[in-house]
Amino acid sequence: MPLATLARRAGALLLVGAGLISASGAAHADAAVTAGYSTIVFPDQDHSAVYSLINSATRSVDVTMYELRDTTAVNALIARQRAGVRVRVILDGKHSSVNGAAYSALKAAGVGVTYSSSAFVYTHQKTVTVDGAKSLILTGNLDATYYSSSRDYGVVDTDANDVAAIEQVFAADYAKTSITPSDGDNLVWSPTDSQDRLLALINGARTSLDVEELEFGDPALVDAITAAADRGVTVRVVGMNPDSYGSSFDEVTTAGAKVVTYSSTTGLYIHAKAIVADYGTPTAKVFAGSENFSDNSLNNNRELGLIVSDSGVLTTIESTFATDFANGLPY
Fold first, then answer.
1. What's the pLDDT tens digit per position in 136-162?
2. Helices assigned H by DSSP within 42-131
3. 25-62 burial string, b = 16+ CB within 10 Å, else e?
4. Tens of pLDDT along 11-33?
5. How far, in Å, CA of 221 to CA of 205, rounded?
6. SS3 for 247?
């Protein structure tokens, strides 16, 4: 059996022990787990781990979600509310056509639900925090319409400083009051510092840089990736929609980067936002979060991601990236 498969199966057993998925769901879990973090890969893994995380709550569930169109998730939140757990939800206000059904159902059940602050162009963050102890940071929405085809990642973060910072920002955003977010130990916030943090990650790469992004148009980040390729870093990009981002793909390939793309009409849809720098070296780091390579995402939206050096997160995202790179259409 391949080592990657063994690691995934071991990860599934650890998720069961941690209460993130049920024993019956273990066979479907494609996850790697270490002391402080666990990684979920969609659509390879279904969303049972997300539902089990919600169901595990005994005190509180706080959700910030750009799009919520998943009746199983909504019903799980309502069930926790009825069990005496404090449930609060922030939904993006500009997507009421998508979020309206969830908003109405949650409101009718007594869940504390609100539309997002107009201080941000979009509230594009995708986070579920349980009991003030663990936060699931997602690259994708809880929108079942896209579950079967969207490549996305989720990282469960139990770092106390990270979770505390996420909860502080949630409280402010829920109340629609201003706050300068703390990065905790690993966090990457928009509109506060995501562009600077991602530039530092890219500029710090010395051997390799693997980028998987739905949107690939922010000039500062694209220029930094080009500079990385120019200085001899092995750069690979998995992207979408070459008709939209062709000029950026041209820029990085001219510098020596390799780019593959996917089409929204065929198979896998690359919705993920992830970067792996210097994989296999002692300084390797990985980013996963809601931030696209766009000015709006980095500087005008509420977004959340994290950068960690955790080996489990690194290996899971890197191995998935390698598969996606191998199966994409060369640009």
1. 999 999 999 999 999 999 999 999 999
2. 48-55, 71-82, 96-108
3. bbeebbbbbbebbbbbbbbebbbbbbbbbbbbbeebbb
4. 333 343 334 433 323 333 344 44
5. 13
6. helix
